[in-house]
Amino acid sequence: MKILVIGNEDRYKKYLPDPELVKRNRVIFCPCKASDEELVQAAQDADAIIIDAIAKLPGNVIRQMPNLKIIQSEGVGYNGIDCQAAKEKGVYVCNCKGANAGAVAEQAILLMLALLRSTITGDRLEREGRQIEMKERLMVEGITELGDCKIGFIGFGDIAKATAKRLIPFGCKLYYYDKYKASQEQETEYHVSFMELNELICICDIVSLHCPATPETAGMVNAEFLAKMKPTAYLINTARGDIVDNQALYDAIVMGGIRGAGLDTVYPEPTTKDNILLNLPDEFQEHIVFSPHIGGITTSFFRRAHLFNWGNIEAVLKGERPKNIVNGL
Q1: What does the pLDDT look like over 266-317, one tens digit per residue?
Q2: Fewest C-beta atoms under 10 Å: which of 29, 65, 73, 77?
């Protein structure tokens, strides 16, 4: 059997959970930026593919692989895979649902605290020898504790649930909006209350995005959305960058429509120096806290994910049905 891995070879080898599986099968590595022709040339006869969650796998490649049985996303995302083409060929597309939930939850809370505590500005002024100036300023302006905030989750999947669970000890008031209302038991477990989207946007001090990137959610956080938020509110995005309209967010911050944002993901990726969100006027530069899309890439995540990935591949090669099928087979 042949397995094609589309992604960083060093990373896959580092987290390889079962060397015996590799010995029993031939593993071919291709980088994320490999062309369609290179992928087909390297592994046209592949039985399985494991692919970086942000890599692309178009239908014309899938259709040229007659032996292919499963495409396994390394992580949770699978937007770059032509799921319909795979379905037409009877090829499973699977993801690693939930494996990064705790890791991304930590990052979301980190961004919330960094904004509330003016961490970026504080670090800079401390290094400049202006500690007392910053301290005096914040005593006048005020510092909001996380526990005093109303936090609203847009989307209430694995990551939102993990974030809510970690926020419970802070004492926050937690709300969520999702197309599918959670059960009463889940609402009790996670200390959350359902709220319609428009109301949630209007009343929450922190709006945290946890919805997938779909045609429906692309650009969802636009000028109209941001205009409903409180001028003192913060936006947190650990989901996908293209959910947010960059120009609208820029305008909302500069015009005082919202206080700021914490972004682990920015569209397009990779983020370049000319991105409008990296070019706010000087006095607003630190109203956005960035992290370089690292929320879900902890060591523990990769260990969990790769153990699951290879296990799912092995199951399919044995003729068994895999877990976490996302293309309706």
Answers
A1: 999 899 999 999 999 999 999 999 999 999 999 999 999 999 999 999 999 9
A2: 29
pLDDT at residue 104, rounded to an integer: 97
Beta strands in 62-158 (DSSP E): 70-73, 92-94, 150-154
Q: What is the dihedral of CA 102, 106, 107, 109, to 10 degrees?
A: 130
Q: Annotated catalytic, 320?
A: no
Closest CA to 152 of 225, 218, 97: 225
| Shared domain check, 260 and 159 | yes
Domain extent, residue 109, equals: 101-290
Answer yes or no: do 263 and 305 share one domain: no
Return the ∠ at Cα 30 (arms to 100 and 290), rounded to 5°.
40
> What are the residues whose beta carbons fall under 8 Å from the beta carbon of 97, sequence distance 6 or more?
76, 158, 324
- Given the residues 240, 287, 304, 306, the one annotated as active site: 240
Q: What residues does 285 pair with on adjacent strands? A: none
Residue with tokens 């969802």: 220
141 is catalytic: no
The one catalytic residue in 293, 304, 306, 314 is 293
Residue 19 pLDDT class (50, 70, 90 cuts): low
Q: How confident is the model at residue 77 (pLDDT cuts 50, 70, 90)?
A: confident
289, amino acid identity: V
pLDDT score of 3: 94
Options 106, 189, 269, 286, the catalytic residue = 269
Answer yes or no: 259 catalytic.
no
Domain harbouring 160, CATH code: 3.40.50.720
